[in-house]
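FIELD: query
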Amino acid sequence: MIVSEPRQDVAAWVGQRIGVEFRPPYTAIAEVRGGKIIAGYVFNVWTEYDVEVSLAADRLSRSLIKSAFSYVVDNLGCRRATFRTRADNVNAQKCLERLGGRLEGRQRAYFGDCDGLLYGIMKEDFPIGQHPITAQSA
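FIELD: result
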């Protein structure tokens, strides 16, 4: 089941896994199975055309990925999503690349003990979840 509330619980779950603390304003969605969060997205720092997205997952389903894409493009009206990951998190980098992300930069010591890598996903590059409304507005 995909949920958006309680967003504080989703943000705490994601934050604990990626080592950050989110402060409002933010929104969040998560997938819950058996009463437990298995994956979640936190959306913050919205700038009309872009939103910063944080993701943590034990398992990442296609339905949650599509829900996140739909939220960014259809609800927020963004053309792109920005992701940051640790330079030593190869699994996250591969996941972002599979989702259409492109490496856009490196932020030295962003995580204190590790550099941060900045990825951007443009809506026209997202490999799943395209639908006629989204495709026409690209």
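FIELD: remark
The chain has one domain: 2-136.
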